[in-house]
Automatic annotation (TrEMBL):
The protein, known as: Lactoylglutathione lyase
Keywords noted in UniProt: Lyase
Transmembrane residue ranges: none
The VOC domain, residue ranges: 13-133
InterPro entries, per database record: Glyas_Bleomycin-R_OHBP_Dase, VOC_core
SUPFAM superfamilies with a match to the protein in the record: Glyoxalase/Bleomycin resistance protein/Dihydroxybiphenyl dioxygenase
Classification lineage: Bacteria, Bacillati, Bacillota, Bacilli, Lactobacillales
Length: 136
């Protein structure tokens, strides 16, 4: 697939990097030792799984339980790009012919007003998420 600039205007920065874990406390302690601070901690389901967001300077990590840690090179699950309009970005990604990993924009109750997101697949089967933190 040739590079298509039509999606470039729908994100403005790296939002976070997603890392699954089997041991949330151990993983949080590791990143805290590197200087990261916890921004938020959320339940993800009714089975005790959680997601934690940690930040150091401009870099934010999303660390969660429930999907299992890969435990080898390639353990990062996804790279998330910040968007202010997930719905418009989704339409642009579909129109540009990107391989979509969902058939519609997803919603979760993280943060005060929730998030909206979708994922595309890169040429090496990597996941690139477009995520909007809903402001109101």
């Amino acid at each position: 697939m040739a590079f298509n600039k039509s999606l470039a205007g729908y994100f403005d920065d790296l939002q976070h990097i997603g890392i699954p874990t089997d041991d949330l406390q151990k993983t949080v302690a590791f990143w805290e030792k590197l200087g990261f601070k916890m921004l938020g901690n959320f339940d993800t389901d009714d089975q005790g799984n959680e997601v934690v967001f940690m930040q150091y300077a401009h870099l934010t990590l999303e660390i969660w339980t429930g999907d299992g840690a890969v435990r080898q090179t390639g353990a990062i699950n996804h790279i998330s790009l910040n968007t202010s309009d997930a719905d418009a970005a989704f339409k642009a990604a579909k129109a540009a012919g990107f391989k979509m990993k969902e058939d519609k924009v997803q919603h979760l109750d993280f943060w005060q007003h929730g998030i909206k997101f979708f994922n595309i697949e890169g040429p090496n089967a990597e996941t690139i998420e477009f995520c909007q933190i809903v402001k109101d």
